[in-house]
Please model this.
Amino acid sequence: MSIAWFKYSSPMTFYGLAGHLAPWFGWGAAILAVIGLYIGFFVAPTDFQQGEAYRVIFIHVPAAWMSMFIYLVMAFWSAVGLAWNTRLSFMMARALAPTGALFAFLSLWTGAFWGKPMWGAWWVWDARLTSALILFFLYVGIMALWAAIDDRRRGDRAGALLILVGAINVPIIYFSVKWWNTLHQGASISLTKAPSMASIMLTGMLIMAFAAWFYSIAVALVRVRGIILERERQTEWVKVLLEQRS
Amino acid sequence: MNWASWDAFWAMGGYGLYVWGSYAAVVVGVGLEIFLLRRSHANLIKRLKRMQTWEKQ
Model:
């Protein structure tokens, strides 16, 4: 099977493809969120230790996962962009950052609203929380760097470099609960052990994680379309496209 | 069914503030991102079209 990868690495073709795909992912995210929230609030039972407060898990864990996963995807595109100087790669990194920052913020916020009733504190400086806060600052720093550099190509490269250096933080977040004695609990699911939570709770959480995934893809696709238009505005195809829209 | 009434649902066993405080942040965050993205996309298209008409003149 041969897929025309290089065809879609051209911003012009990808602009069209992203436009076709984005609504599907957007509606997919909405449907998954409805199902996930229904399971989370109406099917999953009360937790025997945490009562109803545990229901924050259905957004906290998906948000935290997405904040790390989006960062890794940005690091991937940055590496590709630096290695092969592909235009679309840098655009993808730029399109993902705001959504990653949003999820990093939401993981901190929902974590605080879960920590307060369970630990008695909105915030503690344990390794998991501190490294997650650093991830949020990394996102903000990367976007500030892009905003500060007028030369687009230099901005792309500087941002990619910062993203790649900061990528070291992602395994630190993930393994922090193992490496250090943290107040934050250990991983709820892992590849090597059976999950430490009831299967219906796990189902709801995973469906919400997929919803967050679909949402991120939809939003990033729409955002990358804007970036493509902006950067390719001198080309013939964008001129034709804009004329057709009037 | 988990909840005897809507009141029980909103109370979340006494954790209403924390559960709904979390979900409200997600709704506001996601809603804001979608709103800002749509607005900036519409503004971009307007701006590019204006630039195009200038170039023609």
Notes: Chain B has a mean pLDDT of 91. Residues 15-50 of chain B form one domain. Helices of chain B lie at 6-11, 16-56. The CA atoms of residues 37 and 43 of chain B lie 10 Å apart.
